[in-house]
């Protein structure tokens, strides 16, 4: 049975909100390695390490990347960690995406995160709440989102506690990071904005 948010998707405002949190001028438009277990990443979160070579070629050519560059980048399929770091450095100039291409890549990966919110949130939400939760899920990952107090509180009907729970996700490597504090404040503001 479909949940109450099954037909929701990120709004244009939500897409802009997420893009502005994820894109980094001079970084996300080129192949880069964000660190840790990530693969070579292009745009705001398109991780080549978790895709097949064929999928990479199809996705990149669909947004206007030249087939030669797409083929080169498809060699990053399956690479993570230091292998991805080495590949990203060696191929940093393989492509330089426009903002429109970065947004198109973001749209390609968004359905996964939308589906997480659709599946894990069992109470009806408004568009701003949905958009804020997709942003949170995109940043912390589906497993963390599913088990978060944001979802638990919201599903219990405690909207205020759900909003406050966003703020708990402000750490990286066990340390509070100001950029995450700022992002959570913006997500809470969006979540609390009436439609």
Automatic annotation (TrEMBL):
Keywords, comma-separated and alphabetical: Antimicrobial, Bacteriolytic enzyme, Glycosidase, Host cytoplasm, Hydrolase
InterPro entries assigned to the protein according to its UniProt record, in alphabetical order: Bacteriophage_GH24, Endolysin_autolysin, Endolysin_T4_type, Glyco_hydro_24, Lysozyme-like_dom_sf, Lysozyme_dom_sf
Gene Ontology annotations of biological process type: cell wall macromolecule catabolic process; defense response to bacterium; killing of cells of another organism; peptidoglycan catabolic process
GO molecular function: lysozyme activity
Catalytic activity, reaction form: Hydrolysis of (1->4)-beta-linkages between N-acetylmuramic acid and N-acetyl-D-glucosamine residues in a peptidoglycan and between N-acetyl-D-glucosamine residues in chitodextrins
Enzyme class, spelled out: hydrolase
CDD domains per record: lyz_endolysin_autolysin
EC number: 3.2.1.17
Family to which this protein belongs: Belongs to the glycosyl hydrolase 24 family.
Name by which UniProt lists this protein: Lysozyme
Organism (species): Skermanella aerolata
């Amino acid at each position: 049975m479909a949940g109450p948010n099954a037909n929701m998707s990120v709004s244009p405002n939500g897409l802009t909100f997420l893009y502005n949190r994820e894109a980094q001028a001079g970084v996300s438009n080129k192949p880069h390695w964000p660190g840790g277990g990530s693969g070579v990443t292009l745009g705001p979160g398109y991780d080549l390490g978790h895709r097949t070579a064929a999928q990479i070629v199809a996705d990149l050519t669909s947004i206007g990347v030249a087939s030669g560059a797409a083929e080169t980048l498809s060699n990053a399929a399956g690479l993570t960690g230091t292998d991805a770091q080495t590949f990203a450095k060696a191929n940093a100039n393989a492509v330089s995406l426009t903002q429109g291409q970065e947004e198109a890549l973001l749209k390609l990966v968004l359905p996964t995160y939308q589906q997480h919110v659709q599946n894990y949130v069992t109470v009806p939400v408004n568009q701003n709440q949905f958009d804020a939760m997709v942003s949170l899920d995109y940043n912390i990952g589906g497993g963390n989102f599913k088990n978060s107090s944001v979802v638990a509180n919201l599903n219990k009907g405690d909207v205020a506690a759900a909003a406050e729970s966003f703020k708990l996700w402000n750490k990286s490597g066990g340390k509070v990071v100001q950029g995450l504090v700022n992002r959570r404040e913006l997500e809470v503001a969006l979540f609390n904005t009436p439609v």
